[in-house]
Amino acid sequence: MAFYPEEFIEEVKSSNDVVDVISGYVNLKRHGTTYFGNCPFHKEKTASFAVTPDKQIFHCFGCGVGGNVISFIMKAENLSFKEAVEFLADRAKLQLPVENDSEEVANELRIKEYHKSQMYNINKDAGKFFFLNINKSKMAQDYIKQRKLNIETVKKFGIGFALDDNSLVKYLKEKGYKETDMLATGLVGKSEKGFLYDKFKNRLMFPIFDVRGRVVAFGGRALGSHEELKEKHIPKYVNSPENLIYTKGRHLYGLNIAKQSGGDKLKRILVVEGYMDVVSPHSYGVTNVVASLGTALTENQGKLLRQYAEEVVLSYDSDQAGQNAILRGIDVMQSLGVMCKVLQMEGAKDPDEYVLKYGPEKFNKLINNSITAVEYKIKILKQKYNLDDTADKIRFLNKMAEILSKVPNNIERDIYIEKLSKDLGVGKEALVAEIEKFLFKDDKKTKSLKVPQPENPVKSVSKETSELEETILYLLTSKRKEVFEQVKKFVLVNDFQVEPNKDLLSSFYQSYENGSIYNLDLTSLCTNEDQVNIITKLMAKPNTSIEFDKITEEVLSSFNLQKMQKRKEELLNLMKQATDQEELNKYQSELRELVQSNVRK
Ligand SMILES: [Zn+2]
Question: How do strand 309-314 and strand 339-342 relate by DSSP bridges?
Answer without folding.
Answer: parallel
